[in-house]
Specification:
45% helix, 12 strands, alpha/beta, Gyrase A, domain 2, 6-stranded mixed β-sheet, GTP binding, binds guanosine-5'-diphosphate, hydrolase, 3 domains, cytoplasm, Rossmann fold, Four Helix Bundle (Hemerythrin (Met), subunit A)
Length: 455
């Protein structure tokens, strides 16, 4: 028999309500003792006084009873919606402990939900990540996962693999010459397109940041990167000065643009430097460039393009070409209040989907509004439309499925049908791992360990 677990499900601190959640065989009994009420009607909210074992009043709270199996965990669940604050919830929790419950481990409610078949693993993972993500678009993608999109996708893939298997198994008894070649071609092309789709999902998922996008400002010294950062934040966060090399450390701040969480990173201007401190700053700039999903490449519109600018263009091009999923690049021409001296033709070398954006970073409100809409537009193009594999174990499972399909295809070409069937069975096992892993303990422990208490 599973023991009864209890936890405070709301964050600590001062707030209107504090929820203490119980799950397990003794949950209803413990609630009866604390409230001195014989029973609760399932799914009804009951206003009730709560008492400790000495009979002293603890709180007046709403009690909710979810009878097994129709509850989050699939077991009997009681929720006490107490008054908020640090003390009350903790006292109610202590009472539950005295009456036989034990403190829940991180993610244990959801683990029980999984073990009792209320959720598949993809859904449980979506819950874990939804609680912690800071990016609203990613959260929406996770919600789709919670509603079962990923599970449905896994079923589709399984159905295709099973159909390929069924077709070839009837052929195993045929002699080679009797196998209809068009069937082989059809199965082959179906599997190839399945593998391509899996690969797209894999690449898309790997490239998507779960904690929001990171945007880096890159350019030679004095083009106005720090002024631009200040404009985007609408306050003076970074020191700006006409002296080159002022920014030596990396400065980071968060911004919400539309539904996207964007981490802004201002970096030291990139150029050849003998100053060891500045060189360290430049190293950090290069690191920020590697991490960024959006790169603002800043130029000074009031001076001609020089070798330093060209070196930066080459650097950004190189970075973009090295990635499987290239970053969004926005060329920015700053200091447009001054006479134009920059030949913008060279900026076309930057592999950017948008034209260069002209700004005057000293005019903060206008710069912020121009850039907010440019960034929002760039981010809208990459909203989460497809299935997303948010956990590393899911990405690993899909990569393995793909590899098994490729091996199976090779065996199909050489008409080694038994080996083909063997690899397809491996592919089936790998894809099933996303929702129902067979060696589950390890995956479960690592996944549910990420949860917060009370979930
Ligand atoms: P960074 O080294 O690239 O971070 O450049 P800063 O933001 O420190 O700016 C260098 C100098 O250019 C400072 O004196 C700024 O006031 C000035 N500056 C920045 N943006 C503009 C602009 O749009 N117009 C003009 N006229 N000056 C600017």
């Amino acid at each position: 028999m599973q023991d009864t677990i209890v936890a405070i499900a709301t964050p600590s601190g001062v707030g209107g309500i504090c929820i203490v959640r119980l799950s397990g065989k003794q949950a209803a009994q413990i609630a009866s003792t604390i409230t001195k009420k014989p029973a609760f009607t399932p799914r009804y909210a009951t206003l009730s006084l709560l008492y400790d074992t000495q009979g002293a009043l603890l709180d007046e709270a709403i009690v909710l009873y979810f009878q097994a199996p129709k509850s989050y965990t699939g077991e009997d669940v009681i929720e006490f919606q107490c008054h908020g604050g640090e003390i009350i919830g903790r006292r109610v929790l202590n009472e539950c402990l005295l009456l036989g419950a034990r403190i829940a481990r991180a993610g244990e409610f959801t683990k029980r939900a999984y073990l009792n078949g209320r959720l598949d693993l993809a859904q449980a993972n979506a819950i874990a990540q939804m609680i912690t993500t800071r990016d609203a678009s990613f959260q929406s993608a996770l919600l789709k996962q919670l509603k079962g999109d990923l599970g449905a996708f896994v079923e589709q893939v399984r159905a295709s693999l099973i159909s390929a298997l069924a077709h070839t198994e009837v052929m195993i008894d045929y002699s080679e010459e009797d196998i209809p070649s068009d069937i082989i071609t059809r199965i082959h092309s179906m599997l190839e397109s399945l593998a391509t789709r899996l690969n797209n999902i894999y690449t898309f998922s790997k490239a998507r940041p779960s904690q929001g996008h990171s945007l880096c400002l890159i350019g030679k010294p004095n083009v106005g990167k720090s002024s631009l950062l200040n404009a985007l934040l609408l306050y003076d966060r970074a020191i700006t000065s006409p002296i080159a090399g002022t920014t030596r450390d990396r400065i980071e701040e968060d911004l919400l643009i539309g539904s996207h969480r964007v981490r802004l990173i201002d970096t030291a201007g990139i150029h050849a430097s003998d100053d060891s401190l500045e060189s360290k700053g430049i190293e950090k700039s290069l690191q920020a460039l590697k991490e960024a999903s959006i790169i603002l490449v800043v130029f000074d519109g009031s001076s001609p393009l020089d070798p330093q600018d060209e070196a930066i263009i080459a650097l950004v091009q190189e970075e973009s070409a090295s990635r499987q999923s290239p970053p969004t690049i926005l060329p920015i021409i700053n200091k447009c209040d001054l006479p134009a001296m920059l030949d913008t033709a060279a900026l076309h070398k930057l592999d950017s989907s948008s034209a260069a954006i002209a700004i005057n970073a000293l005019n903060k409100p206008e710069t912020a509004s121009t850039l907010y809409s440019a960034i929002a537009q760039a981010l809208a193009q990459e909203s989460y439309q497809d299935i997303i594999l948010s956990a590393p174990y899911q990405q690993e499972a899909i990569a393995q499925t793909q590899a098994h399909i490729h091996k199976a295809c090779a065996k199909l070409e050489s008409l080694e049908l038994e080996l083909f069937a063997y690899h397809i069975k491996d592919a089936l096992e790998s894809i099933g791992f996303i929702t129902h892993p067979y060696n589950s303990e390890e995956v479960l422990d690592s996944m549910f360990g990420q949860f917060c208490l009370g979930k």
